[in-house]
Amino acid sequence: AQRVTQPEKLLSVFKGAPVELKCNYSYSGSPELFWYVQYSRQRLQLLLRHISRESIKGFTADLNKGETSFHLKKPFAQEEDSAMYYCALSALGNQGGKLIFGQGTELSVKP
Amino acid sequence: DAGVTQSPTHLIKTRGQQVTLRCSPKSGHDTVSWYQQALGQGPQFIFQYYEEEERQRGNFPDRFSGHQFPNYSSELNVNALLLGDSALYLCASSLSGVTNQPQHFGDGTRLSIL
Question: Which of A14, A59, A90, B54 is spaced 20 to 30 A from B62 at the CA atom?
Answer without folding.
Answer: A90
